[in-house]
Design brief:
By secondary structure, the protein is an alpha/beta fold. The protein has a single domain, classed as Vaccinia Virus protein VP39 (Rossmann fold, 3-Layer(aba) Sandwich), CATH 3.40.50.150. The chain is 35% helix and 26% strand. It has helices at 4-14, 16-19, 27-33, 53-60, 75-84, 98-101, 120-133, 153-158; strands at 43-47, 68-72, 89-92, 106-111, 134-144, 161-169, 176-183. A seven-stranded mixed sheet has the order 3-2-1-4-5-7-6. The termini are far apart.
């Protein structure tokens, strides 16, 4: 099996806009993104898992593989994820397909997608899909490299969301901040 770093670099060179990062997420960022997850979290959905750094952290928190569903567009990442994480459901589909493909409601959606670099309509579709599949008290967790939340204030207000500005993770390249969104 190809190493995660070699796979990441190969996919970055092939499709930099889709990968949209200069390095894989750090283990420290993965721990911050998955804070609060555990064996009783219910169903967890991950958008844009890439090589699976957040997936590893989700499983390490005790979420059973059968309760984890991944949405990834890159075919090579999908093959890698299916080999690396038996028992985890991996869809080669955009995050916007989650309401059609996820049965029941999720306790959390963990997103590694570069929302701020996406067109507004795509970003809105992804966030709408996340909240369509989330249980009433579920949370949407997203990180960003920039100084502002990964959703603009007008979108947060229009969706009636509250946002918790979480940890600044310095041990990541580049440093990132984690945000947790919930229905207001």
């Amino acid at each position: 099996m190809t190493s995660d770093l070699a796979l990441f670099r190969r996919r970055l060179l092939k499709n930099p806009r889709q990968v949209s990062a200069i390095a894989p997420s750090s283990r420290t960022l993965a721990r911050a993104m998955t804070l609060g997850l555990g064996p009783n979290s219910g169903q967890v959905v991950e958008f844009g898992p890439g090589t699976g750094r957040f997936t590893e952290a989700i499983l390490a928190r005790g979420v059973p593989p059968g309760n984890l569903t991944l949405f990834e567009l890159d075919e090579e990442f999908v093959d890698h994820l299916r080999q690396k994480f038996p028992g985890v459901t991996v869809h080669r589909a955009p995050a916007q397909e989650a309401p059609r493909l996820v049965a029941g409601k999720a306790g959390a959606v963990i997103s590694g997608l570069p929302l701020l670099s996406m067109p507004e309509a795509v970003r809105e579709g992804i966030v709408a899909a996340a909240f369509d599949i989330l249980a009433p008290r579920g949370r949407f967790v997203q990180f960003t490299y920039g100084p502002r939340p990964p959703l603009p204030p007008e979108q947060i207000a229009a969706l009636g969301l509250t946002v918790d500005k979480g940890f600044k993770v310095w041990a990541n390249l580049p440093p990132a901040r984690v945000y947790r969104f919930r229905r207001g």
